[in-house]
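Researcher: Let's run the pair from yesterday's discussion. Sequence first, then tokens, for each.
Model: Starting with the first of the pair.
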Amino acid sequence: MEITSRSLAGTQPAQIASDTAVQPGTSSGFPAPAQLAPHPRILRVLPQFVRRNFSSRASQLSGGKAIVLSIPKSGRTWIRTFLCAYFCKLHNREFTLQPERYSEPGIPRLVFSHDLFEHRTKGNLWDRVRGKYLVPKRELILLVRDPRDCFVSLYVQMTRRDPSAPAKFKRETLSNLLRDKRFGISGIIRTMNDWLHEFAGLNSFMIIRYEALRASPAEHYRELLAVLGETTPDMSIFQEALEFSQFENMQKLEAAGAFDSKILLPGDVRDPESFKVRRGKVGGYREYLSIEDQGYALNALRELDVQFGYNA
């Protein structure tokens, strides 16, 4: 499946990462924004939703070049590491996951958020009233991954590396949480559908599939850089950034405490499952979910909009 959208930089249309390369001149299977037809099931109940943020975090979640939204464990740390490695090296700066501290005009500021997912699972009532986790409706990159892999990776993170995880994760089995309406696969699917319905009409909207990045990182990272205005990247620096952001290298750096962010610290260096950069395997959910649970998850995917390409 190939998805196209207008470039956030306002240049040529940007091709969206997919598992199938599209030859120049061929059209996409994804409708143009004005022609978008949401999955019929999404039209059943669409409650009135007003996107606003009155919290102190509002300024942190606005501004910059673009916003990157994702369900947790969709690969955003990988993307963030690559982009930071590339732009820091390009401007002769030491690598950091917080390049905004340099106030370097050539390094685009990106906002990374879980938006609606955290709004529904992390925030309390007052957080939701204020819209604490919500981003503004503007230039947007949506990073998506198979909901089954997202769920399993999130479960492992909550039970093996995050001491502040909701108590529900500590009490429930993997099988029970899979069926939970908020934290389970149906909550992930609901959020992905809601994002697509809300944002697909924007001119500056792009979907990146994690599986496509894993299959062809060089190809799709070049597309992502182009969308951010870097249409002719320095290829020597590009290659360095690719190698730096490889999973094996990121795991070594995390184990050594080399990242300047608390988000990239293992829960227990002796436990590979407690690492933020854990496996990144496509289809790894099969090693964790029973046959019965795999069947339940597959059936749940019928509710996911077909334009994501995960329910074939």
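Model: Moving on to the second of the pair.
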Amino acid sequence: MEPLGSAAEVAAGVRSALREGGSVEHASGVQWFFKDEIKSHGWYTADLRRAAIRFRREVRNERGLDFLVEVADQLFSGLVLEEKVAAVFLLEKLDADFSDLEFKLFESWLDRISSWADHDALLHDLIAPMIVAKPARAKIVFRWAKSRKRWHRRAACVALIRGARAKMFFHEITQLSDSLLSDEDDMVRKGLGWLLRETAKFDAKRTVPYLMKIRERAPRLVLRTACETLPANIKRKILDRTLPPFRNSSTTHRRGVASIPQTSGTMDRASLRRKSKSDKRLAKSIPSRAAE
């Protein structure tokens, strides 16, 4: 391996490799998942991750973590989907080695977002693990939630998903949800629904009463998504606004919420059928978390 040049030169080399190693045919298929036009080289996610991990090992061994972060910063400045996703793959699962300095850098990347795919890769694989590692960072989501930029408001939701899966941040999640229920942006609503779905999946005992509380004012998209993993009888009770709410917490327990598995949460068959076809195609094309 020849000595590496500057971070900009290395990033240019990565861009060239991504361009040459992609598939024009697959790139046209990737567009199917986006409303707005995107630029893609047509890489499959598994292949892109393997290439990024291999490159990460070489670069880190020769120049160290700081240089690797510089290369990723250069890549996330591009306009091509695979360049940004590769930047995330270069750094994923290294959150234990990062500090507040890197957290601020990753936050600045929000201004470079061009689609929900690079957005969710950044938030779910880099920022969210750092918030779990240092819970004090969670307060930043309230600033993002007030932003006029849609990707910042969606980021406020996606950033807490890993914490929700660990039964963390319930107070922050409900406070954030209350502030975003009136948001009319579809991307923000999907992000909020995703967050509440994961919260309900792993902490149904506290989340179901909250969903009942907001069911009259929550957008249907948010509420339907939030209920996807709940038992059919509980889901119906939440979604059918003509039904009376649970009388008290003991009633909720008797009807099944207390017995909901708190660490799994399988979708009902109807939801699985609806998602199966598109999710299989999506998983091969771009980061799977972004499909949520």
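Researcher: Give me one sentence on the second I can quote.
Model: The CA atoms of residues 154 and 188 lie 5 Å apart.
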